[in-house]
């Protein structure tokens, strides 16, 4: 007669709603994806108390400047949770963090992530981190560590939020910034993949007001609303770094701007010097169908949404006028749809109707003019 081994009683921590075994399983599921982001500079592998990165490569710099950024993806996570699709939100996170670092011309070195959830579901956490790792690999960023925290009672069992932080490096005399901008510089716009990771509170409000569910199919978008809205944020870092490092284009790019929260004009204004201004011609691009459809659903004009959504522009480059065609061609060859959106001027003028600076930066002035292309 066989005996059944007595099962151990759940720990006090498990009784409170925290499952450490599930957390361990999640780590095992994500380990191979994370390890693929590790070069010889990463020490200790996955699971240490601190991520270790060998900084001896910086000894080759004359004056290395470290650049850091931290961000999340906002309420876009609510849509991922609503349709139970979690394999793209990680790319959104990496893009929001790393593409801020490249704005100053810096190369990302390493990143860490943080996931807070109501309950650790190992496969869900692994999907999120796999997306983070794949985007880190695509941008040349080592994912050296992270944390998944279970917060029962504070978050629902299917709720989570994500955040991340990264560090990069740029040679001091290669740093991009407003001091490089000159009269006559050309503003190049680079296409967005969709909404990216800003303005989703407005998106959710519009759909809620119309009684539309994320699983409902949109004929205009050719997919369910949830699937269309989860189109991952474009990654600009790797192609931009390749163009910046091209000896034939050395010094051609003066400044970059990542179009995130605050909209189109404000994000460009914050990287321009005081006294510089530009009028961006709406006629140089056609906003993506997702923007047009959501604007129509909400009863908004596209112009009224320029401070909330990117409307199809994910990044700007301000470049020397005589080298703008070469830079535009190089960016296009790297897979970034690029076009001329305006020209910088430093001529004296009144700035009524312009956005001036943003995020505490007293920068240049930008406004959008004309009508959008059809």
Distance between the termini: 80 Å
Briefly note the structural class of the backbone. Answer: alpha+beta
What's the pLDDT, averaged over the residues? 90
Estimate the helix proportion, in percent: 25-40%
Spatial strand order of the main sheet: 3-6-4-5
CATH architecture of the largest domain: Alpha-Beta Complex
Element order, helices and strands?
A: HHEEEHHEHEEEHEEHHEHEHEHEEE
Estimate nothing, just give the exact number of structural domains. 2
Number of helices: 11
Question: What's the CATH superfamily of the largest domain, by name?
Answer: PurM-like C-terminal domain
Remind me, CATH topology of the largest domain? Phosphoribosyl-aminoimidazole Synthetase, Chain A, domain 2
| Rg over alpha carbons | 23 Å
Q: Beta-strand percentage?
A: 15-25%
Multimeric organization: single chain
The low-confidence runs, each spanning 5 or more residues with pLDDT under 50, are 1-9
CATH class division of the largest domain: Alpha Beta
Gross morphology: globular
User: What composes the largest sheet?
Assistant: 4 strands, mixed
SS elements, strand count: 15
Give an overview of the whole structure.
By secondary structure, the protein is α+β, with helices and mostly antiparallel strands. The protein has two domains: 136 residues, 2-Layer Sandwich (60s Ribosomal Protein L30, Chain: A), CATH 3.30.1330; 192 residues, Phosphoribosyl-aminoimidazole Synthetase, Chain A, domain 2, CATH 3.90.650. Helix content is 29%, strand content 25%. The chain has eleven helices and 15 strands. The strands form five sheets. Strands 3-6-4-5 form a four-stranded mixed β-sheet, covered by helices on one side. It has a four-stranded antiparallel β-sheet with strand order 10-12-7-13. Strands 11-15-14 form a three-stranded mixed β-sheet. β4, α5 and β5 form a beta-alpha-beta unit. α2 runs parallel beside α5 and α4 runs parallel beside α5. The longest helix has 18 residues. It is globular, with a radius of gyration of 23 Å. It starts with 11 loop residues before the first helix and ends in a 5-residue tail after the last strand. 43% of the residues are buried.
């Amino acid at each position: 007669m066989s005996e059944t081994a007595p099962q151990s009683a759940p720990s006090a921590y498990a009784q409170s709603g925290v499952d450490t075994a599930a957390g361990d399983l999640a780590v095992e599921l994500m380990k191979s994806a994370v390890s693929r982001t590790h070069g010889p500079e990463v020490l200790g592998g996955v699971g240490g108390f601190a991520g270790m990165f060998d900084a001896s490569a910086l000894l080759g710099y004359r004056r290395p400047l470290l650049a850091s950024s931290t961000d999340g993806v906002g309420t876009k996570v609510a849509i991922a949770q609503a349709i139970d699709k979690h394999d793209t939100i990680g790319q959104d996170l990496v893009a929001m963090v790393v593409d801020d670092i490249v704005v100053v011309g810096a190369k990302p070195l390493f990143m860490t992530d943080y996931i807070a959830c109501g309950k650790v579901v190992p496969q869900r956490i692994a999907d999120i981190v796999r997306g983070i790792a794949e985007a880190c690999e695509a941008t040349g960023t080592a994912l050296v560590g992270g944390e998944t925290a279970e917060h029962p009672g504070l978050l629902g069992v299917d709720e989570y939020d994500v955040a991340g932080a990264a560090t990069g490096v740029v040679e001091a005399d290669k740093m991009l910034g407003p001091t490089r901008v000159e009269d006559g510089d050309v503003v190049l716009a680079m296409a967005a993949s969709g909404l990216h990771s800003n303005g989703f509170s407005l998106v959710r409000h519009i759909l809620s007001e119309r009684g539309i569910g994320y699983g409902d199919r949109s004929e205009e978008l050719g997919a369910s609303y949830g699937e269309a809205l989860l189109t991952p944020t474009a990654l600009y870092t790797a192609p931009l770094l390749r163009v910046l490092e091209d000896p034939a284009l050395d010094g051609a790019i003066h400044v970059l701007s990542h179009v995130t929260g605050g909209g189109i004009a404000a994000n460009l204004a914050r990287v321009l010097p005081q006294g510089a201004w530009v009028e961006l011609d709406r006629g140089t691009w056609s906003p993506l169908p997702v923007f047009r459809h959501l604007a129509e659903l909400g009863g908004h004009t596209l112009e009224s949404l320029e401070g909330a959504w990117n409307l199809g522009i994910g990044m700007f480059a301000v470049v020397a006028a005589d080298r703008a065609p070469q830079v535009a061609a190089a960016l296009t060859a790297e897979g970034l749809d690029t076009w001329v959106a305006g020209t910088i001027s430093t001529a004296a003028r009144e700035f009524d109707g312009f956005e001036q600076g943003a995020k505490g930066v007293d920068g240049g002035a930008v406004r959008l003019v004309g009508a959008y292309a059809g």
